[in-house]
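Please produce the structure of this protein holding adenosine-5'-triphosphate.
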Amino acid sequence: MKISDRLKRMSGSIRLRTPDIAPASVGRFLANTAVTSSTSGTESTSDAAASSTAETLDSPVLAVERLSRTYAGAERPAVDDVSFSIGRGECLGLVGESGCGKSTLARCLLRIEDADSGSIILGGQDIARLNGRKLRPHRRRIQIVFQNPTAALNPKLKVSDSLIDPYEQLGQDAKLTHFAYTSRDAYIRQLLEAVELPAELASRYPHELSGGQRQRVTIARAISIEPDVVVLDEPTASLDVISQGAVLDLLTNLRTSLGLSYLFISHDLAAVHRMSQRIMVMREGEIVDRFDAGDLFAEERHAYTKELISIF
Ligand SMILES: Nc1ncnc2c1ncn2[C@@H]1O[C@H](COP(=O)(O)OP(=O)(O)OP(=O)(O)O)[C@@H](O)[C@H]1O
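Below is the modeled complex.
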């Protein structure tokens, strides 16, 4: 079988529904939003628009310019002169093998770590060197979903308390357009509904949820304050293959319905190909290839991209 067929088959093989979640309540949630939704697995109008405008991003929601980060004592930079931009409603994929610098890049974007040089333009402002009170209003604009939801959620907090936390910390001054804060309970219900979880889960602790449900809670937290950009750092790596497909479908539906932009980070080329309109390939801290997702199998791909394809 040709490699391209194998990859397409792998992309399709994780297009499954998980049984441990509430039935498609996201449909009801999406019906309440102003933006057109897509059905999972098919490219929506907004996907096509994002794709066609991707290379001419006049006003990207995130523009990263020449970002570098070298850890003390390291022989080479973990992130080496990386530049890219993401358009509104677009999913930009970032693929590369373990240790190439994907998570370091993510942490720099979130300002969990400081880059040594370069800029991170978010909402028209370079946040790379802002700190304290000056950085605070910009934190709402970029959120992250980590690989391990168990580590990301405070085990001592009920789901409801975890979900309300970003709003209480960062969101109260924000103008929410999709979620309405009429009361704490109503807001939490909307968030759970958006990620297709039953309202009863609000009173549970993280250890009383499945792995897939826990990851849905971290996704709900990340989108709760309607950020411009969500960095998805291997968001399905800790899940079984059935839950992986369902969570990827959910993420696509949320992107199109809320107009979110994603940086989707993974070592899994099939998942990146399935999720993204454009793809960047990272190796040893550098972006070595970038292309529209539809051009993954084009002859001009970098030798390293072809190597990644051949692994599948
Ligand atoms: N806190 C740290 N201190 C020193 N070196 C680090 C630190 N974090 C990461 N590194 C190094 O930086 C490089 C990039 O690591 P990073 O975790 O960003 O890669 P990755 O592509 O996200 O890997 P994975 O997919 O396995 O998570 C590696 O060589 C790693 O050993």
